[in-house]
Amino acid sequence: MTSASMIVDRKTQRYDRQLRLWGDHGQAALESARVCLINGSATGTEILKNLVLPGIGSFTVIDSEKVSGADVGNNFFLDADSIGQSRARVVTELLQELNTDVSGNFVEEPLQSLLDNDVEFFRPFTLMIATQLSSKMLARVSEVCVKLGIPFLAVRSYGLIGYLRLQIGEHCVIESHPDSPMDDLRLDRPFPELLSYLQQIDFNTQDGFQHAHIPFLAILLKHLLEWKASHGGLPPKTSKDKDEFRAEIQRARRIKEDGSRAEEENHDEAITHATKAWHVSSIPSEISALFADSNVDNLTATSSPFWIMVRSLRDFVMAEGEGLLPLRGSIPDMAADSDRYIRLQHVYQERAKHDVAAFTAHVHRHLAELGLPLGTISDDDAKTFCRNAPFLRVIRARPISDELASATSKLTDTLNFHLEDPDSSVAFYVLLRAVDLFFEEHGRFPGAGDDQVEEDIAPLKQYVVGLLTDLGVSQHAIKEELIHEMCRFGAAELHNIASILGGLASQEAVKVITRQYIPFNNTFLFNGITSTSSTVEL
Amino acid sequence: MATTSSSNHGADRSAAVSRIVGDDVYARIKAAKVLMVGAGGIGCELLKNLVLSGFVNVVVVDLDTIEVSNLNRQFLFQRQHVGLPKAQVAADSARRFNPQANIVFHHANIKNKEFSQEWFGQFDLVLNALDNVSARNHVNRMCLAADVPLVESGTAGYLGQVTVIKKGATECFECTPKPPPKQHPVCTIRNTPSLPIHCIVWGKFLFNQLFGLADDENNISPNTADPEAAGDNADAGRQDVDGRDANAELSSADSATNNNVQSLRAWAIEHQYHADETVQKLFVNDVKTLLRMDKLWRERRPPVPLDTLLEQSTDGTNDDGPASSTRLKDQRVWGLKECTDVFRSSLSRLAQRLSEEQAKAAASGSSEAAILSWDKDDDLAMDFVTAAANLRMSVFSIPNMCRFDAKSMAGNIIPAIATTNAIVAGLIVLEAMKILRDQFSICRMTFLARKPNSRMKVLLPTELSKPNPNCHVCAAKPRVTVHVNTNTMTLGQFDEVVLKGRLGMIAPDMMEGNRILLSSEPGETDINNPKALSSLGIVHDTSVFVEDFHQSYELTIRVLHREAFEADAQFVVEGQGSVPPPAAQAPAAPAPTPSADRKRKAEDDSDAPAVVDDDDIVLMDDGSASDHQPAAAHVNKKHRLETPADDEDDIVFE
Q: In this structure, are A99 and A225 located in the same domain?
């Protein structure tokens, strides 16, 4: 065995349980990712731990702090002996131990000076993550990430509260892994191979077993075609039509010797799934919207494979697809004999392959016209794209700096909508911004000292009221007791909350890096008092 | 702000927690004695969170040792720890962090007698971080018996769940019946496979037949007792006899074509596990035996013996593209010749390993014969099953599958990642703190979804349900009705498959009236084991009283006689399986699951991730199932495809 294949095997073993979520192409993306973490806080190290374990390529910790007693109290990676040492270095060394495949780096230069003097430092990163930054620094990092086109995830643990914010320019997801996708069966638009399959089925068989094991899709299609033939080509429309259609299937059950209707599970299934008969095959609105994107009409040699494929998809729809996307090719489970089930499966799969080939021809034509090598988009890429065509997504999560700069009417409306519920976690969005205003003036967070909790409540309330006014939200939207809670938190970072936030943030980081599954857009708030959360677009 | 005074750091360490949770609660945390069951995926995260939240008295129990496939998430373990007990390494790692913490570990099965009701009673709180239903059931019962609050949890891929169980106040873990494991019809596995899963199951059975614990349940040879093979006139009575008995009958009558279990192992030993001869027997001679059962092939595509296939194939390579095009050799479908080669070499190496184990056992004076146990993470065993299954798929014209997907299917693998475990462990501690504050009313069952639901929630807390008054575990007088064929099921089978297997008992005593039919004392009632229930007086509508002293669990079972069961079931417990469960217990939850109709599934974490459990074959999600094994992702219900219960299995909270 060569050493290369040994390495592959070692990795396959180690990463087995996650490869089953994102596949080897997702793993490859992860292994080539370079992640930058600002602040080796408890939250920050928890995030990196969850990224180092599954094997990102490299990480860099930016932190100019020295390890404190509080760090040792909330960070699993720091012990008493490390107090007073460089937090960036200690954290990096300990994280590195978790997985020797990952390369760890650290920078002790203050963030402020990197932002002032060396913006190019950030350019190589795949993803930027900042923890425990207050609004002002957040806005600065946000601007740099916009400029360099790097996705940015901001994370904050504050007492029992958690905040996550994603900023991303244009994030195209092919494999969004929908939870329970609608079957793509085309009973309303049967293709020739499906019709000839139907013709081969003997509905009049005397064999009871045979009759009870005709795949229900065939039963539905047969009855639909008969219905249309006697109704001017139209499918069942009204609920009366639909009841009648089901009754027809009911009457198609075999009659037993005693004159009763046989119990046939396949007919039960046909009746249960009768809606599939009048389901209209169409293009999802999200995909129609993608077709209208300016990227589609203006292909250039620098267009991404994603947009070249969206264009090819549109071409397919207008030509071979006759208004429909490529067939996905999978069919649901059903009570049927294996032979006819497998043949039916084959009919759908072959049609899907046929559609992929037609789509791929469009891709090749565009690549040639753009002067790009055909290998730019592999056949496997094209196949994956077709299979996921109805589920393509493009996410654009707007810059944090824009959000903080001025309140748009959309932001005001969103906040007003959520804050109508006095228990909404969105209240903590306002409160976190208010404690940052407090910090800017006082150089410390409210309640940071044990004896300051009570005295800071009134001033914090002033900031809350001022902020609500600026944001155009009712002054009574935030419950008084939450202001007390914020003071009691004293900006402390609890390990348990850091652990939860670390888990949630790294999950989103994996989605962004692998370009699989749909990341949240764009703000997530966690309330550890009630274990509740909200996601809002701000 | 940074301090170098180490005398100060103890105060700093606790300051934030005690301030935010309150001094009184912090004092309770310090005083609390906590049991953590399981030191796997959730356990590693949980132990860290406990120690950093101020808990100092923690007992950890886990019976597993560390494996390479744990390292992508169980961060307390590193490569040099592979093979060591999880409980020990986890406790050591956490102790090193906080030397003041009193962390005790037991590398042991939580079901052991040493962990008695009194032992459970010493804890203020039990936290489950388990990966299988059977242990969860057991801990549930022990916590009910000892009246200790339990936080239950599970994860599966991106999904997770945390809930609180408190005797008398909430649902217990068993208030909602879990669907029983389903079986594949014996005849489909042995005679007429039509889907990859049938061949995978056959491959695992074959492993046990040749190297492992061989029994009737996993016979793989052609079954000439197949009622279908007997033609349309097969008498109805015969179909009621389960395949095993019919087969036993026939094997004595016709052992030449219907090799029984002993004979396959005996055959292999006699032929010294000769690779070529084994290939010839399994994939040529046995296939010819099946072909002679011509009624099976009237409506099916007949199998083709391997020798004919090899003659037909030109170079034996698969058209799935060159090996170099995929990064992992695991994800490439092997060609026919490659499968044959892998089968031969893995067979020989496994035979070698078996003989080494036997020599070792003999040297140590053990009276028991050494066997190999199948493990999905054992590369050699997985190679063997992949090759055997694929050869069988080729024989039956079923599209082949790669080793990676074969492993998913054979191991019932549920994906597992660090992120979900971290979130769930954090939620467990939040619930634990509520319990320590005596705030049961605000405890919640929290479900972690993969993405925000329609109300933009990713964490979905719901109120805890009340106990199910008909629960067969936590009701005041637990009762259950079991349908069984009292003429064919023996007491020994009833003990194994019903009392221990399904009803989760450890050491049951069973009485009918004043007669003790089954005793947990070794040997006392062995004489009854081979007797049919009816011959012991358990006939239709007999009530028996069963008691498990260890679990402090008493159950009255009403036995109803039934001749026939669906598929290969041997019995039915009312309220579980085909009989609809009592309607009362659907939690009034806002259907939070991503797919509302899908069962909320939580999982494991601990060692081998997970596993089985209910009706789905777990494969990569939806659209990502690979192309070349299409039938696998969509399973033909008619065959009641299901994964035979593996050593680990999983749970469903409903």
A: no
Q: How close, in Å, is residue A330 to chain B by CA atoms?
A: 8
Interface test mutation site (partner A, options B417, B446, B457, max chain A beta carbons within 10 A): B417
Residue B148 lies in a domain: yes
Contacts of A117 (CB under 8 A, 6+ apart): none
Catalytic residues of B: 187
Domain shared by A373 and A436, yes or no: no
Q: Along chain A (538 residues), what's the average pLDDT of each consecutive run of 10 residues?
A: 51 85 91 98 97 97 95 89 95 95 97 96 98 94 97 97 96 90 93 96 88 94 97 95 96 88 90 95 96 96 97 98 95 82 91 97 97 95 95 95 89 92 92 96 89 90 94 87 94 95 96 94 93 91
Q: What is the ipTM of this complex?
A: 0.91
- Domain co-membership, A36 together with A135: yes
Identify which of B422, B630, B639 has the shortest CB distance to residue A503: B422
Q: Could you tell me if residue B163 is inside a domain? A: yes
Tell which of B545, B561, B577 closes a domain.
B561
Q: Tell me how many domains chain A contains.
A: 4
The Cα–Cα gap between B418 and A94 comes to 17
CA B363 to CA B313: how far, in whole Å? 47
End residue of a domain, out of A211, A243, A278: A278
Q: Residues A48, A49, A51, A52: is their CA dihedral positive or negative?
A: positive
Contacts of A530 in chain B (CB under 8 A): 442, 461
Domain-embedded: residue B424: yes
Q: Is B40 annotated as a binding residue?
A: yes
Output A225-234 pairs: Cβ under 8 A, ≥24 positions apart. Answer: A225/A190, A225/A198
- Residue B231 marked in a binding site: no
pLDDT of residue B181: 64
Distance from CA of A331 to the nearest CA of B (A): 7
Which amino acid would we find at residue B503? Answer: L
- Of A227, A250, A278, the domain-final residue: A278
Residue A45 and residue A141 in one domain: yes
Q: Distance between CA A311 and CA A317 in Å, rounded?
A: 10
Q: Considering only CB atoms, which chain B residues are within 8 Å of A500?
A: 422-423, 426-427
Nearest to B456 among A13, A265, A535 (CB): A535
B357-371: average pLDDT = 82
Q: Which residues in chain A have their CB less than 8 angstroms from residue B156's CB?
A: none
Query: In which domain, by residue range, is A385 found?
Result: 285-391
C-alpha distance from residue B48 to each of A73, A262, B314, B429, B644 (Å): 12, 60, 58, 11, 35
Q: Where are the alpha helices (DSSP H) in B452-570?
A: 491-493
Predicted TM-score (pTM) of this structure: 0.83
Residue A495: which of B49, B68, B419 has the nearest Cβ? B49
Query: Which of the residue ranges B51-60, B341-350, B430-439, B617-626 would you say has the lowest mean pLDDT?
Result: B617-626
Task: Tell me the C-alpha distance between B14 and A529, whole Å.
Answer: 19
For residue A69, give how far its alpha carbon lies from the nearest alpha carbon of chain B (Å). Answer: 5
Residue B297 gets which letter from DSSP?
A: G
CB contact under 8 A, A72 and B13: yes
Instruction: Output the domain CATH number for residue B141.
Output: 3.40.50.720
Q: How many structural domains compose chain B?
A: 3
Best of A9, A12, A201 to substitute, by most chain B Cβ atoms within 10 angstroms, is A12
CATH number for the domain harbouring residue A525: 3.40.50.720
In angstroms, the CA B203 to CA B64 distance is 26
Q: Name the residue range of residue B367's domain.
A: 196-397
